[in-house]
Automatic annotation (TrEMBL):
SUPFAM superfamilies linked: Clavaminate synthase-like
Signal peptide: none
Full protein name: TauD/TfdA-like domain-containing protein
Top-level taxon in the UniProt lineage: Eukaryota
Region span, Disordered: 1-20
Species of provenance: Neurospora tetraspora
Gene Ontology terms, MF aspect: oxidoreductase activity
Matching PANTHER family: FAMILY OXIDOREDUCTASE, PUTATIVE (AFU_ORTHOLOGUE AFUA_4G13850)-RELATED, GAMMA-BUTYROBETAINE HYDROXYLASE-RELATED
Pfam families (alphabetical): TauD (PF02668)
Amino acid sequence: MACPLQSTRACNMAPPQKDSSPIVRPDIDWIPSYKVFKERVQRLAALNLNRPTTLPAGWPSKITSERVWSGSDFKSEDDYVVKLSQEDIAEIESALEYFKALDLGPDDVSKDNFPLPNLGSKLEEVADIIHNGRGFVILRGLEPDKYSSVDNILLYLGVTSYIAETRGMQDFDGRMILHIQAVRKESDVAQHGSMPNSPYVNRAQPFHTDLCDVLSLYALGVAAYGGESFLASSATIYNEIARLRPDVIHVLAKDDWPFDEFYKNQYHTRPLLYNFSSSDGKQEHGPGFQFSRRPLTGAHFSPHHPLVPAMSEVQAEALDMVYFLAKEHALEIQLQKGDMQIFNNFAMLHARSSFVDEGEHKRHMLRLWLRNEQKMWRAEPKSEGLEKVGREVYEWEKEEWRREVGTKWDIEQSPPELRVDFKRASCA
């Protein structure tokens, strides 16, 4: 008899029985409670479990690189904001007109046909910061209201092509760019009974990663209130856990975390924590995370399939430990209209506060999933789970059905009611 709820690692669930007991899940929320977390830590400590006192073989005792930072280390925005000069902006606008004269589409934008002879070298330095430095940069100075919707997309693609040239497909319908904006308020859930995914609601999002190598947001508009962006260094989080609780590194690196795939009526298991190196294997970058909370905890707007296995209490402790360390060490950023925020998705976790749109002040971000083929990070040892995600996102042309779907470029907004993320649910 077929397994009713498939695991992509193995079919390890028996068919449901009418008299089977419901799965008991830990008391853990999508946005966690610190009180519940501390009580769990104390409860597990009292059990005197036989926990490892050393790190797993091959995992560093400490990461030492520029990507180890805490939000308080940055004295001002000048530490991470690259301000575009009038000459830089004029060069972008000239490149935009050059590209438009070629009568090509968004898929075709590249360094070769979007010439930035002076700014280009600065953007390549940004690429190095993202992959080998602190892990993030904000480009500031553009005025999106000066440009049409199409031109904003084209110049965004042109600028980012110097940082990470390969663009990822973000959903099953072939969308290469997403418009992140609120189409409903969190308070509307009672009226509608269901809600779009978090990118399309004004609710806060907890710390997580996306399904990409490099994530970029271009702020076409900002909210009247709230909507702050938070970044937290995965290296700092790792160092803290490795120093204080090496047993938790074992838990995070084990491949038994049950990820609900929601739309597919199946789940898969994999680690949350990976060791990364450069694509040629010559440079070790060290540990980084790849996970979102929602497939692990479920949420009030997105409950678990009833047959997805529960995480353990030990896993719940580890998951919330990562969250609260991220919160402690996070950098809060108030993005301005026209900002391009670009960061290494494997090098940090990101979150967002709730927000309120009013009048002309409405949050509207263009999101790209990017990859730099020369500087990309790879998990060591090779992770089939991450490799599969990478193929789905960046090597979609190798899949016949994806080629048939083709790419889609939404100009004004993305349709969240119809949108289905990749199986592993991309956000939060």
